[in-house]
Amino acid sequence: MPETRELGKVLQELRQRVGLTQQEAADLAGLSVAGLRDVEQGRVATPRARTIRLLGGALGLSATEVADLVALARPNPRAAGGVWLGVLGPLALRVDGVEADPGSETQRVLLGLLSLAANATVSREELLEVVWGGRPPANVGTVLPTRISRLRRRLAPAAPGAVPPELVATTGGYRLSCQPEQLDLLHFHQLVGRARQHQAGGEPALAADRYAEAMTLWRGEPLAGLAPLADHPAVTALLRLWQTVVVEYATVAIDLGRNDRVVPLLQQVVTGDSLHELAHAKLMLALAGSGQQATALTLFDDLRRRLADELGASPGPELTQAHRRVLRQQVPRPEVAPVRAHRQLPPDIADFCGRQSELRWLADRLPPIDQPAPRPTAPPIYALEGMGGVGKTRLAVRVAHQLLAAGRYAEQQLYVDLHGHADEPPADPAAVLASFLQLLAVPGDQIPADLPSRSALFRDRLHGRPSLLLLDNAASEEQVRPLLPASPENLVLITSRRSLAIDGAHTLPLDVFSEQEATELLIQVVGADRVGSDPTAARQVVERCGRLPLAVALVARRLQARPAWRLADLAGRIAEARHRLAELAAGTRALRSVFDLSYQALDPPTQRTFRLLGLHPGDDVTPYSAAALTGTTVSAAQGCLDRLVDEHLVIALPGDRYRLHDLLRAYAHDLAQQDEPTAQEAAVTQLLTWYLSVAATAHRQISPGNELPAPSVPGGAQAPGIVSDDDAVAWLAAEQANLIAIVTGAAGDNNREYAWQLAATLRHLFLRVGDWQEWIRVAEAGLAAARHCGDRHGETLMRNDLGIAYGNSGDLDRAVALLAEAVQVSATLPDQTQQARSRNNLGIALTLRGQTTEAIAELQRALALAEKPTLRGRTLNNLGRSYTVQGDYPAAIECARAALSLLTDSSDVWGYALALGVLGEALTFDGQFAEAVTVLRRACELHRQQRAPGEEVVLLRLLSDALTELGEDEQAAACRLRAESLRPPPDGPPRPSELGRATAHPVDLPTP
Questions:
Q1: Nearest-angstrom CA–CA distance, 259 and 477
Q2: Residues with Cβ < 8 Å from 684, sequence gap 6 or more?
Q3: Which DSSP string corresponds to 358-414?
Q4: What confidence tens digit (pLDDT) does each residue in 609-618 have?
Q5: Transmembrane region positions (predicted)?
Q6: Which end of the chain is more exposed for a tag (fewer CB within 10 A), N or C?
Q7: Distance separating alpha carbons of residues 734 and 655, to the nearest angstrom
Q8: CA atoms within 13 A on the CB side of 940
Q9: How far is CA 567 from CA 354, 541, 553, in A?
């Protein structure tokens, strides 16, 4: 399994693959369903090995697969915070998951030498001899400590809590102290040790897995490119160890039949040591086990001649024994893919009918078995297109089985459902190729990482082999193209609801059945006598199904299961519901009838849940929001959602979210109108109250001291745990579309009081993502709602939000006008806090417009009105920014320090980070570069933790300027590089930093 994949997602995919719900898997593993959900959703960063083993047993995984999952759960120092060193190849250094430069050539050699002897002392004499080649510099007494000091700085991570490798001065030398997860050499030794333990303990499969994992750590010659270390004894010994481990790995792998996996490694060994008899012996066995017996025998003959010519010797016992085993074919056969891997077609459909003209069209275009010259050079490709339920897959499967019956493509048929229709996430072509390649006997560790390479290998494996490939439910050309073979011996059948522009493909659009075909399908399922007894009702059934094959098949099977029903009864049931979706096309009316039948099969609680989902104003729900909507517990709501998923009435999305298809949403909304209006209103009110309660909690978590009026969670409902800024931001981001839908959709109904309050909770999310136009749209809807309600407090908040959004979008005139209006409205409120906040924001907008004198006066008025320490700190911070723009840096520094003193003991991390930024900026402009660097680094770290890349970009540029002034050009360049990497794409939403250095600061005021 690739290390880069998240463990939770892997476990979720494995569970879904075996068809278990979360509850079923948890019961089998002896775990709580909440615990399993936390693991799958990534809330548990590093699950215990015991938990993973229990889940592995519940999912029926092998010991090797469980071991891989346990390994996947271990933190990856290359991708996370901390420091990682690599010497098994060119010297590599990663700090906080980013490639880092160890420095000059001298420092690289010094770091490489210390890494080779990790956790052991290297004497000063050896360091001087190796690094400076026996010609130490004149300042020999200070040069080594200086270089070591520089390396320490290079190895210092910024991630909080990360412990870097330690360069320790010892008696007579220096020692690099580090852990296996920090140095690939130590990790290699650790894995080899485990492999040997497994081998000694009679666990060859686990041993082979650990050997294979150890081999992946090697990136080339140890410390390649560092000439002073090229012939160092430690490097030479390390290469000998690698050869030894390759032979050990080969011994285990060959016995397991994993010959292909060790052939490339053994070939590298014998290329480097042409007389290595043991490696040659293992290579002979691996080649023979891979079906290359002639190559293995040639290898033996070549080595026998070299031994005689160069050493005057004969092959030793290992080589002789290997030769004998190859001749006698006593080598374990390679792992063989299951037979089903090559015959994957779904079974033919017993009640297939109709489509005779389409079958003839395909038969006329399929290549004959003995095609005369000139033979084609590309594979024939046929794309079947049409609406959902029209029978594309049924037709493709029938064509494929007819070809098999004719003796074609009998040994190789590959099938995949690409999930291309709108209500399922499309399959990743890279993942599909990985699955195909494994089925085609490509070992997992030999499957390329990138999509183009996988596609090329797939084409190579199918070249010259008659193969039938059925790509079902394709989403797009981009999804399909990497999956297409290149050999004319192959045949490709594609089904899709979309028209695909595939070069060279023959396209066959499918329409609904004719009346005769639809009636024939009905007869096949329920019998000719039953249909013939009432031909008028039969005609009504197929027409009211829109002659859509899926709809006809579904109602026919339902009638088949109910012998007491007459055909007229079924026709009547279908007819009763058609007016519910009367505005849709005939085919859609037929699907509505199918929806009715599925809905009527549900139990009453699940029916009610489905109806109420149609009243949800947003795009999707969670078990929590569904519980609030239905007035039930989360567990009960989860059960109903699971049943709806089973009935294909609701789509399960990643992250424990659920969505209705658009047609089903309209259907559910119509059903809900059957309920009492008071019941509908109560359900929606419960939902909005829940959203406001949780959103206000998230808002307070991000911005303490900015309290919004928040109702309690409605009785019976539960709120998700929000205990950190990350929790709050994640919840708001996940629910953003739903909250916006509520705000913008509530302006015309009786829930306007929720609109402006929910709009206010989105403030900090918009500040982080920088989508100003969307924020303007939301705030305008909130302002309209507040004015309609006559709520001057809400009107003040929304005018502030609008002013901030317009200011960040670059429309400063509009921003100043709105914020001035906010000041006027807030002056009528009894609590002068709102006036202080409005004047604060107005002052910053004036600063941005270049009116610093007016801005400072406005901010001083705000400071006089502010009473809360947090608000005073924020106001002082903004005042300091205005002084900076005016050029009065001492005053700016004084204000920023005063702001920090007020915010230090508060939980307002955001405000504290902004104040650090203002102080660092003023110090830089005042020429106090050393202190500015310290302050700006801390500010950048806090903004990184707060996930505020726009703020970080502004400060990184300032930090780069200060470092340049101090002569730290390399560090300055690194800051500029990171700042550039954080910039949004040209077509992405603007971030605060893109609007100028000062633009980030008018948004720092978290007006509640």
A1: 37
A2: 615, 617, 629, 751
A3: HHHHHHHHSPPTTPPSSPPSS--EEEEE-STTSSHHHHHHHHHHHHHHTTSSTT-EE
A4: 999 999 998 8
A5: none
A6: N
A7: 9
A8: 24
A9: 21, 8, 14
Question: What is the rounded distance in angstroms from the CA atom of residue 403 to the CA atom of residue 417?
Answer: 20
Rounded to whole angstroms, the Cα distance separating 895 from 875 reads: 9
What's the average model confidence in pLDDT over 784-793? 91
**553 burial type by CB count under 10 A (0-12 exposed, 13-18 middle, 19+ buried):** buried
Q: Is 750 helix (H, G, I), strand (E, B) or coil?
A: coil
- Per-residue pLDDT at 307: 82
Write out the DSSP string of 11-62: HHHHHHHTT--HHHHHHHHT--HHHHHHHHTT-SSS--HHHHHHHHHHTT--
Give phi and psi for 841, each to the nearest 5: -65, -40
Residue 88 and residue 821: Cα distance in Å, rounded?
65
Do 174 and 145 contact (CB within 8 A), yes or no?
A: no
Burial 202-218 (b: 16+ CB within 10 A, else e): ebbebbbbbbbbbbeeb
Residue 942: phi, psi to the nearest 5? -65, -40
The Cα–Cα gap between 696 and 710 comes to 6
The HSE-up count of residue 702 (CA atoms within 13 Å, CB side) is 33
- pLDDT digits 0-9 by tens, 927-943: 999 999 999 999 999 98
- Strands (E) in 688-761, as ranges, are none
Distances in whole angstroms, Cα of residue 289 to Cα of each of 261, 325, 442: 11, 10, 15
Strand order in the sheet with 98-99: 83-86, 92-95, 98-99
Lookup result for tokens 């006066």: 857
Ordered by where they begin, the domains of the chain are 7-73 (1.10.260.40), 77-256 (1.10.10.10), 274-335 (no CATH), 339-509 (3.40.50.300), 515-597 (no CATH), 602-675 (1.10.10.10), 831-1008 (1.25.40.10)
What span, in angstroms and rounded, lies between the C-alpha atoms of 755 and 760? 9
Which band of pLDDT confidence, cut at 50, 70 and 90, is reported for residue 1002? very low
Hey, what are 592's tokens?
């509505």
Distance between CA atoms of residues 724 and 914, nearest Å: 19
The Cα 470–Cα 533 span in angstroms is: 40
Residue 641, token pair as written in the block: 């959602």
Average pLDDT across the chain, whole number: 81
CA–CA distance, 131 with 991 (Å, rounded to integer)? 47
Contact of 593 with 551, CB cutoff 8 Å: yes
| Residue 535 predicted with pLDDT over 80 | yes
Two tokens, residue 750 = 């009786």
> Six-digit token pair at 374?
């000139």
Q: Is 936 helix (H, G, I), strand (E, B) or coil?
A: helix
Pair of tokens at residue 967: 């002569």
Collapsing DSSP states into helix, strand and coil, what is residue 175?
A: strand
Nearest to 875 by CA among 902, 893, 854: 902
- Which pTM does this prediction carry? 0.46
Buried b / exposed e over 416-441, threshold 16 CB at 10 Å, is bbbbbbeebebbebbebbbebbebbe
List the Cα angle 602/605/609 in 5-degree steps: 90
Can you tell me the distance from the alpha carbon of 819 to that of 805, in angstroms, rounded to the nearest whole number? 11
Q: CB–CB of 592/580 below 8 Å? A: yes
